[in-house]
């Protein structure tokens, strides 16, 4: 089981509650990735967001920088909003990061995106949501699977490619491409049909309710004739690790509250309720908030339903103090990861 973290960047707050700079948020995220590598985490994902509170708008740039400053950790997008980006540029950015890393540590996760900020930002129409994603994912896969640099492709959402070079190529010829989904059955079936690993973003409800989707994914992949080795599942969740459960709950709540207030303003969510927060932070809720023993036990519990090979947490939200994020990364690597390994071995 690979254990890791992901982030959209998190803008810290001044003592009076006003936001610090987005450039500081990006520097903090870079520092966290380097720390995660040194601490021994297996994976770090950088998600694409375009808000002042979550300013990691260019995963490829951050991952390329981190690739040069890390040694072992796998790095990927979590996710790249492929429908409103250009697959040629996404591939080039991540292939560049792969070259910088020496090869074998860089991945792309292609997602639709739960936020819609990218559509007006890049001039796309929400009515084209499905077509944009389907065609651009097809192009990204075509580039990745091509045997050399010269690619031909045609579609309706961007200009065609007629034997044009897309460079650089990845060190090992291709990059791992994952398909991200928040729980849509069609996305699970699509990942299975295409033979892509699937990454489930679980941010609410009981995580084990995703088990039927994992079964659908595996069954679809098998029916399509894809080898079992290609049918990988990862789980992205929300959480925080602290020395005690009490500390974890107290540290995470202010940021959770801040984020939900902002999302309520942007997307019409209802006002945050602390009772809902506390319910989600207890099994079988979706938040992995607790001491190392509890977090490890809950990861292994979900593995019994999902059989996933990677579990990674978003911890820095709503202005979480950076030192708490760094401590949580350390505990995740040095305390949670070995506990998960021992529990899985004992099963």
Automatic annotation (TrEMBL):
InterPro entries: Bact_Lucif_Oxidored, Luciferase-like_dom, Luciferase-like_sf
GO CC annotation: cytosol
GO MF entry, a single one: oxidoreductase activity, acting on paired donors, with incorporation or reduction of molecular oxygen
UniProt keyword annotations, A-Z: Monooxygenase, Oxidoreductase, Plasmid
Chain ranges of the Luciferase-like domain: 16-304
Sequence segments annotated as region (Disordered): 1-21
Identification of the protein by name: Oxidoreductase, (N5,N10-methylenetetrahydromethanopterin reductase)
Protein source organism: Arthrobacter sp. J3.37
């Amino acid at each position: 089981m690979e254990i890791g973290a992901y982030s959209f960047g998190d803008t810290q707050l001044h003592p009076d509650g006003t936001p610090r700079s987005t450039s500081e948020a990006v520097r903090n995220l870079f520092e966290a990735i380097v720390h995660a590598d040194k601490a021994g985490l297996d994976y770090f994902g950088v998600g694409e967001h375009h808000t002042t509170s979550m300013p990691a708008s260019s995963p490829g740039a951050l991952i390329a920088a981190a690739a040069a400053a890390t040694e072992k950790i796998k790095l990927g997008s979590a996710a790249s909003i492929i429908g409103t980006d250009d697959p040629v540029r996404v591939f080039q950015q991540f292939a560049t990061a792969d070259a910088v890393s020496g090869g074998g540590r860089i991945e792309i996760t292609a997602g639709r995106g739960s936020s819609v900020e990218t559509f007006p930002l890049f001039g796309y129409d929400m009515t084209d949501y499905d077509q944009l994603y389907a065609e651009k994912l097809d192009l990204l896969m075509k580039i990745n699977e091509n045997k050399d640099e010269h690619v031909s492709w045609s579609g309706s959402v961007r200009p065609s490619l007629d034997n044009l070079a897309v460079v650089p190529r990845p060190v090992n010829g291709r990059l791992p491409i994952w398909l991200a989904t928040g729980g849509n059955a069609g996305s699970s079936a699509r990942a299975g049909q295409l033979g892509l690993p699937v990454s489930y973003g679980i941010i609410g409800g009981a995580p084990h309710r995703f088990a039927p989707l994992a079964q659908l994914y595996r069954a679809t992949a098998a029916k399509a004739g894809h080898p079992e080795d290609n049918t990988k599942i990862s789980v992205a969740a929300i959480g925080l690790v602290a020395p005690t459960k009490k500390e974890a709950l107290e540290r995470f709540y202010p940021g959770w509250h801040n984020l939900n207030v902002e999302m309520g303003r942007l997307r019409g969510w209802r006002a945050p309720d602390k009772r809902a927060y506390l319910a989600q932070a207890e099994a079988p809720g979706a938040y992995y908030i607790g001491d190392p023993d509890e977090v490890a036990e809950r990861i292994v519990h979900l593995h019994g339903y999902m059989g996933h090979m990677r579990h990674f947490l978003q911890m820095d939200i709503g202005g979480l103090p950076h030192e708490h994020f760094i401590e949580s990364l350390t505990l995740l690597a040095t305390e949670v990861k070995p506990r998960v390994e021992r529990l899985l071995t004992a099963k």
